[in-house]
Specification:
single chain, alpha+beta, Rossmann fold, four-stranded mixed β-sheet, 10 helices, 4 strands, 48% helix, Peptidase_S10
Length: 219
């Protein structure tokens, strides 16, 4: 998914000089991707992420308002109901490195195929506080999808979705494409941890209630 590296500048987390350094690395990554040198691009992206961390000491890239820079391991373990003595890592480096050649390969064509040729519901969700795959980049990627309802998508307005009378985010829909922007939540795996009520509501609305309604209508 497209990452909008302008986010740190727009949120005021880096100064102009820091943004210029990060932007130059992003341009190099784009060149490598266009050359289909995906492993080198992944290495360069890691360099860019290290530069981001250096430019923003103390900022958790998984949720940029979190108070730690270690991915909140204790909170994750509580969410997964793990005992304290269980050893757990947020990222397996061996697996990550073995997939390095695939990390920056686009899946846009596959998503477009599903949207154009099937009735499969494509649900995209983004935590509003996600720094790695920020909402601005996600919206930009979705705006450029080439599919039969592209004009309908652009014209459709996002609507707030609420849980217990509190607005927990926005939802934008057009046919079988949906975008949920979840407030008070960070990176994809953090959304159900940071805002469980919103995540549960999204699943209930789009999977459980939707399946129940379809079943009733088909009887």
């Amino acid at each position: 998914m497209l990452r909008d590296i302008r986010s740190p500048r727009y949120s005021g987390l880096v100064d102009k000089q820091g943004f210029t350094r990060i932007d130059e690395l992003a341009k190099q990554i784009e060149v490598l991707i266009n050359k289909k040198d995906f492993e080198e691009a992944a290495d360069m992206e890691l360099t860019m992420m290290q530069a981001l961390v250096k430019e923003m000491p103390g900022v958790d890239v998984y949720n940029f308002i979190a108070r730690t820079n270690v991915s909140s391991v204790p909170m994750v373990k509580r969410y997964l109901a793990m005992e304290d003595e269980v050893q757990w890592s947020f990222l397996n480096n061996d697996i990550y490195e073995s997939l390095s050649g695939d990390l920056l390969k686009s899946v846009t064509k596959r998503v477009e195929f599903l949207l154009n040729n099937t009735g499969i519901k494509v649900i995209v969700y983004n935590g509003a506080l996600d720094f790695l795959v920020n909402t601005a980049g996600t919206r930009l990627w979705m705006e450029h999808l080439k599919w039969k309802s592209k004009d309908k998508w652009k014209e459709s307005a996002q609507e707030p979705f609420s849980v217990n009378s509190f607005t927990e985010g926005y939802v934008k829909k057009a046919d079988n494409l949906l975008l949920y922007v979840v407030f008070r939540a960070g990176h994809s795996v953090r959304v159900p941890i940071d805002n469980m009520m919103a995540f549960r509501e999204m699943l209930m609305q789009e999977l459980v209630y939707s399946e129940m309604l379809t079943s009733i209508l088909n009887k």
